[in-house]
Specification:
- By secondary structure, the protein is an alpha/beta fold.
- The chain folds into 2 domains: 115 residues, Rossmann fold, CATH 3.40.50; 93 residues, Orthogonal Bundle (Arc Repressor Mutant, subunit A).
- The protein has a 5-stranded parallel β-sheet, with helices on both faces.
- Helix 4 runs parallel beside helix 8.
- The longest helix has 18 residues.
Protein backbone atom coordinates (compact mmCIF):
# COMPACT_ATOMS: atom_id res chain seq x y z
CA UNK A 1 0.00 0.00 0.00
CA UNK A 2 0.98 3.64 -0.42
CA UNK A 3 0.87 5.54 2.87
CA UNK A 4 1.01 9.32 3.34
CA UNK A 5 2.44 10.23 6.76
CA UNK A 6 1.78 13.82 7.87
CA UNK A 7 3.58 14.84 11.08
CA UNK A 8 5.68 17.89 11.97
CA UNK A 9 8.00 15.92 14.26
CA UNK A 10 10.96 14.70 12.22
CA UNK A 11 11.80 11.79 14.52
CA UNK A 12 8.19 10.54 14.40
CA UNK A 13 8.13 10.78 10.60
CA UNK A 14 11.33 8.76 10.31
CA UNK A 15 10.11 6.17 12.82
CA UNK A 16 6.88 5.65 10.89
CA UNK A 17 8.65 5.63 7.54
CA UNK A 18 11.13 2.97 8.67
CA UNK A 19 8.55 0.67 10.21
CA UNK A 20 5.93 1.02 7.47
CA UNK A 21 8.57 0.35 4.82
CA UNK A 22 9.66 -2.73 6.76
CA UNK A 23 6.02 -3.84 6.43
CA UNK A 24 6.40 -3.50 2.63
CA UNK A 25 4.46 -0.24 2.30
CA UNK A 26 5.47 2.70 0.15
CA UNK A 27 5.69 5.84 2.30
CA UNK A 28 5.50 9.54 1.45
CA UNK A 29 6.30 12.07 4.18
CA UNK A 30 4.87 15.55 4.78
CA UNK A 31 5.38 17.97 7.68
CA UNK A 32 2.57 20.47 7.03
CA UNK A 33 -1.02 20.68 5.80
CA UNK A 34 0.21 22.41 2.65
CA UNK A 35 2.75 19.68 1.90
CA UNK A 36 0.10 17.01 2.50
CA UNK A 37 -2.30 18.72 0.10
CA UNK A 38 0.44 18.91 -2.54
CA UNK A 39 1.20 15.20 -2.14
CA UNK A 40 -2.49 14.28 -2.44
CA UNK A 41 -2.83 16.43 -5.56
CA UNK A 42 0.15 14.66 -7.12
CA UNK A 43 -0.90 11.07 -6.48
CA UNK A 44 -3.24 8.60 -4.79
CA UNK A 45 -2.68 6.92 -1.43
CA UNK A 46 -4.28 3.92 0.25
CA UNK A 47 -4.10 5.32 3.80
CA UNK A 48 -3.28 8.72 5.34
CA UNK A 49 -1.64 8.90 8.79
CA UNK A 50 -2.37 12.46 9.93
CA UNK A 51 -1.13 14.31 13.01
CA UNK A 52 -3.65 16.70 14.58
CA UNK A 53 -1.21 19.44 15.60
CA UNK A 54 0.57 20.83 12.52
CA UNK A 55 2.47 24.12 12.14
CA UNK A 56 0.17 25.58 9.47
CA UNK A 57 -3.18 24.32 10.74
CA UNK A 58 -5.16 21.52 12.35
CA UNK A 59 -5.09 17.99 11.05
CA UNK A 60 -8.77 17.73 11.96
CA UNK A 61 -9.56 20.76 9.79
CA UNK A 62 -7.51 19.29 6.95
CA UNK A 63 -9.41 16.03 7.33
CA UNK A 64 -12.70 17.91 7.13
CA UNK A 65 -11.60 19.71 3.95
CA UNK A 66 -10.51 16.46 2.32
CA UNK A 67 -13.89 14.87 3.06
CA UNK A 68 -15.69 17.94 1.70
CA UNK A 69 -13.64 17.48 -1.49
CA UNK A 70 -14.97 13.86 -1.69
CA UNK A 71 -11.65 12.21 -0.85
CA UNK A 72 -12.54 8.80 0.58
CA UNK A 73 -9.02 7.61 1.45
CA UNK A 74 -8.94 6.12 4.97
CA UNK A 75 -7.48 8.56 7.52
CA UNK A 76 -5.83 7.62 10.82
CA UNK A 77 -5.45 10.61 13.16
CA UNK A 78 -2.44 10.82 15.48
CA UNK A 79 -2.52 13.14 18.45
CA UNK A 80 -1.22 13.72 21.95
CA UNK A 81 -4.80 14.49 22.97
CA UNK A 82 -6.44 11.32 24.21
CA UNK A 83 -9.67 12.88 25.49
CA UNK A 84 -12.88 11.26 24.25
CA UNK A 85 -14.21 14.62 23.03
CA UNK A 86 -11.10 15.14 20.88
CA UNK A 87 -11.49 11.67 19.37
CA UNK A 88 -15.14 12.40 18.63
CA UNK A 89 -14.26 15.71 16.93
CA UNK A 90 -11.77 13.91 14.70
CA UNK A 91 -14.21 11.17 13.75
CA UNK A 92 -16.97 13.67 13.06
CA UNK A 93 -14.57 15.52 10.75
CA UNK A 94 -14.36 12.33 8.68
CA UNK A 95 -11.43 10.40 10.18
CA UNK A 96 -11.73 6.62 10.15
CA UNK A 97 -9.62 5.87 13.19
CA UNK A 98 -7.77 7.63 16.00
CA UNK A 99 -4.56 6.77 17.86
CA UNK A 100 -3.25 8.76 20.84
CA UNK A 101 0.45 9.45 21.38
CA UNK A 102 2.55 7.80 22.65
CA UNK A 103 1.57 4.70 20.70
CA UNK A 104 3.04 1.26 20.08
CA UNK A 105 4.37 1.05 16.54
CA UNK A 106 2.94 -2.47 16.20
CA UNK A 107 -0.54 -1.13 16.96
CA UNK A 108 -0.18 1.67 14.42
CA UNK A 109 0.91 -0.79 11.72
CA UNK A 110 -2.02 -3.05 12.55
CA UNK A 111 -4.46 -0.15 12.29
CA UNK A 112 -2.97 0.98 8.98
CA UNK A 113 -3.33 -2.56 7.62
CA UNK A 114 -6.94 -2.74 8.81
CA UNK A 115 -7.78 0.60 7.20
CA UNK A 116 -6.26 -0.45 3.91
CA UNK A 117 -7.96 -3.82 3.85
CA UNK A 118 -10.87 -4.13 1.43
CA UNK A 119 -12.48 -7.11 3.12
CA UNK A 120 -13.94 -10.26 1.50
CA UNK A 121 -14.90 -10.26 -2.16
CA UNK A 122 -18.66 -10.24 -2.61
CA UNK A 123 -20.20 -11.83 -5.72
CA UNK A 124 -23.26 -9.60 -5.84
CA UNK A 125 -22.76 -6.28 -7.61
CA UNK A 126 -25.41 -4.40 -5.65
CA UNK A 127 -27.79 -4.80 -2.72
CA UNK A 128 -31.10 -2.90 -2.48
CA UNK A 129 -32.88 -2.42 0.85
CA UNK A 130 -35.92 -0.17 0.46
CA UNK A 131 -34.69 3.03 -1.22
CA UNK A 132 -31.09 2.26 -0.20
CA UNK A 133 -28.83 0.88 -2.93
CA UNK A 134 -25.33 -0.31 -2.07
CA UNK A 135 -23.24 -0.81 -5.21
CA UNK A 136 -20.58 -3.25 -4.00
CA UNK A 137 -18.61 -3.15 -7.24
CA UNK A 138 -18.44 0.63 -7.64
CA UNK A 139 -18.41 1.09 -3.82
CA UNK A 140 -21.18 3.68 -3.81
CA UNK A 141 -24.30 4.11 -1.69
CA UNK A 142 -27.44 5.95 -2.76
CA UNK A 143 -30.85 6.65 -1.23
CA UNK A 144 -33.75 7.15 -3.65
CA UNK A 145 -31.23 7.79 -6.42
CA UNK A 146 -29.26 10.35 -4.42
CA UNK A 147 -25.63 9.37 -3.86
CA UNK A 148 -24.59 9.47 -0.22
CA UNK A 149 -20.97 10.58 0.42
CA UNK A 150 -19.36 8.13 2.84
CA UNK A 151 -15.82 7.83 4.15
CA UNK A 152 -13.94 4.58 3.61
CA UNK A 153 -14.71 3.36 7.13
CA UNK A 154 -18.39 4.33 6.90
CA UNK A 155 -18.64 2.55 3.55
CA UNK A 156 -17.01 -0.57 4.99
CA UNK A 157 -19.61 -0.66 7.77
CA UNK A 158 -22.50 -0.26 5.32
CA UNK A 159 -21.10 -2.93 3.01
CA UNK A 160 -20.79 -5.49 5.81
CA UNK A 161 -24.39 -4.80 6.86
CA UNK A 162 -25.77 -4.68 3.31
CA UNK A 163 -24.43 -8.13 2.45
CA UNK A 164 -26.62 -9.54 5.23
CA UNK A 165 -29.72 -7.95 3.56
CA UNK A 166 -31.42 -6.83 6.73
CA UNK A 167 -29.99 -9.58 8.91
CA UNK A 168 -28.36 -8.70 12.20
CA UNK A 169 -24.55 -8.45 12.29
CA UNK A 170 -23.09 -9.06 15.75
CA UNK A 171 -21.17 -6.11 17.15
CA UNK A 172 -17.92 -8.09 17.57
CA UNK A 173 -18.19 -9.41 14.00
CA UNK A 174 -18.62 -5.88 12.60
CA UNK A 175 -15.65 -4.61 14.61
CA UNK A 176 -13.46 -7.49 13.44
CA UNK A 177 -14.53 -7.11 9.79
CA UNK A 178 -14.00 -3.35 9.63
CA UNK A 179 -11.19 -2.69 12.14
CA UNK A 180 -9.51 -6.07 12.15
CA UNK A 181 -9.61 -6.09 15.96
CA UNK A 182 -12.00 -5.58 18.88
CA UNK A 183 -10.78 -3.03 21.42
CA UNK A 184 -12.23 -0.05 23.35
CA UNK A 185 -10.99 2.49 20.80
CA UNK A 186 -12.62 0.65 17.90
CA UNK A 187 -15.84 0.30 19.90
CA UNK A 188 -15.93 4.05 20.59
CA UNK A 189 -15.24 4.77 16.92
CA UNK A 190 -18.06 2.46 15.84
CA UNK A 191 -20.61 4.35 17.95
CA UNK A 192 -19.63 7.66 16.37
CA UNK A 193 -19.60 6.29 12.81
CA UNK A 194 -22.98 4.58 13.19
CA UNK A 195 -24.52 7.89 14.25
CA UNK A 196 -22.86 9.63 11.31
CA UNK A 197 -24.13 7.02 8.83
CA UNK A 198 -27.69 7.36 10.18
CA UNK A 199 -27.62 11.12 9.59
CA UNK A 200 -26.27 10.67 6.06
CA UNK A 201 -28.82 8.03 5.06
CA UNK A 202 -31.65 10.22 6.39
CA UNK A 203 -35.24 9.35 5.54
CA UNK A 204 -38.20 8.80 7.82
CA UNK A 205 -37.01 5.44 9.12
CA UNK A 206 -33.82 4.56 11.02
CA UNK A 207 -32.16 2.55 8.25
CA UNK A 208 -29.16 1.54 10.37
CA UNK A 209 -30.75 -0.04 13.42
CA UNK A 210 -29.12 -0.95 16.72
CA UNK A 211 -30.26 -4.06 18.55
CA UNK A 212 -29.04 -3.52 22.10
CA UNK A 213 -26.68 -6.21 23.27
CA UNK A 214 -26.77 -7.95 19.89
CA UNK A 215 -25.52 -5.87 16.99
CA UNK A 216 -26.64 -3.84 13.98
CA UNK A 217 -28.85 -4.29 10.92
CA UNK A 218 -29.43 -2.31 7.72
CA UNK A 219 -33.20 -2.37 7.31
CA UNK A 220 -36.01 -0.20 5.98
CA UNK A 221 -39.22 -0.43 7.98
CA UNK A 222 -41.18 2.49 6.52
Amino acid sequence: MRILVVDDHAATRKLLERNLELASHGVKLAATCAAASDSLAAGAFDVIVLDVMLPDGSGIELCSRLRAAKLATPILLLTARGEVRDRVHGLEAGADDYLAKPFAIAELCARVNALGRRGPIVRDRAVTIGPIRVDLEARRVSVAGREVPLTAKELAIVEVLAVRRGGVVARHHLLAAVWGDVDPTAEASLEVLVGRIRRKLGGGAPALQTLRGVGYALQWTQ
